[in-house]
Amino acid sequence: MKVIIYCAVTLNGKIARGQSDPLDWTTKEDKGIFAIETKKAGVVVMGHNTFNSISHPLKDRLNVVLTLKDKDSENLPGFLEYTCQTPKQILETLKRRGFKKVFVIGGSVINTLFLRAGLVDEIWLTLAPRLFGDGISLVTDEHLEKKLNLLSAKKLAEGFIMVKYEVVK
After folding, report:
1. Three-class SS state of 86
2. Quick one: fold of 2-167?
3. 146 and 115 in contact (C-beta within 8 Å)?
4. Under a CB-based contact definition with an 8 Å cutoff, are residues 111 and 46 in contact?
5. Pairing relation of β-strands 136-137 and 43-47?
6. CB count in 10 Å sphere of residue 161
7. What is the rounded CA–CA span in Å between residue 91 and residue 4?
8. How many CB atoms lie within 10 A of CB 166?
9. CB 84 within 8 A of CB 67
10. pLDDT-based confidence at residue 68 (cuts at 50, 70, 90)
11. pLDDT in tens, 122-138
């Protein structure tokens, strides 16, 4: 199973200004690529804060929300499912259900959990020509260190750049 972290990030590594920050600072092109790719995969995994920031399940794909509680809200099987499983357990469950690709879409705690567990194959970042002095970083662990190989870079509208990296294992 291929696991991809997909995030928009400022040039100083911030994925949001704060909790529940709307993603209103990216481009339509980035949002379009995100929608196409995550719908093809059929599943996204996110943390509770990320889910709250988008305020609704994403259509046409399974939304898995990783929480500390056993159940944050009512599950809608096949559409919105809450879990307190480990990242490895989540991937095993999704693999048994037939998924071949999973997009991890944040936030920083979830990104860190998947990276720390050695489960991430690629990281796709949309680099935004923005700086947030304060905000949420791509990862939370200051000691986390991963080597990455550049797979591709593509210029998007309005000075944005999409880069895709392979995580060296």
Report:
1. coil
2. Dihydrofolate Reductase, subunit A (3.40.430)
3. yes
4. no
5. unpaired
6. 15
7. 12
8. 14
9. yes
10. confident
11. 999 999 999 998 889 99
Q: pLDDT confidence of 70, banded at 50, 70, 90?
A: low
- Identify the bridge partners of residue 154 per DSSP, sorted by sequence position: 162
For the chain, the domains span 2-167
Nearest to residue 62, comparing CAs of 81, 89, 43? Answer: 43
* 157: Cα separation from own chain's centroid: 21
DSSP summary character for residue 13: S
Task: Work out whether strand 161-167 and strand 122-128 pair parallel, antiparallel, or are unpaired.
Answer: antiparallel
Partners of 165 in beta bridges: 123, 150
- Position 72 scores a pLDDT of 57
What global pTM score does this model have?
Answer: 0.94
Q: Is residue 87 a contact partner of residue 113, using CB atoms and an 8 Å limit?
A: yes
For 46-67, the pLDDT digits (tens) are: 998 899 888 889 999 999 999 8
Q: Determine the Cα–Cα distance for residues 140 and 109; give it in Å rounded to an integer.
A: 6
Q: Could you tell me if 135 and 20 are in contact, meaning their C-beta atoms sit under 8 angstroms apart?
A: no
Average pLDDT taken over every residue of the chain: 93
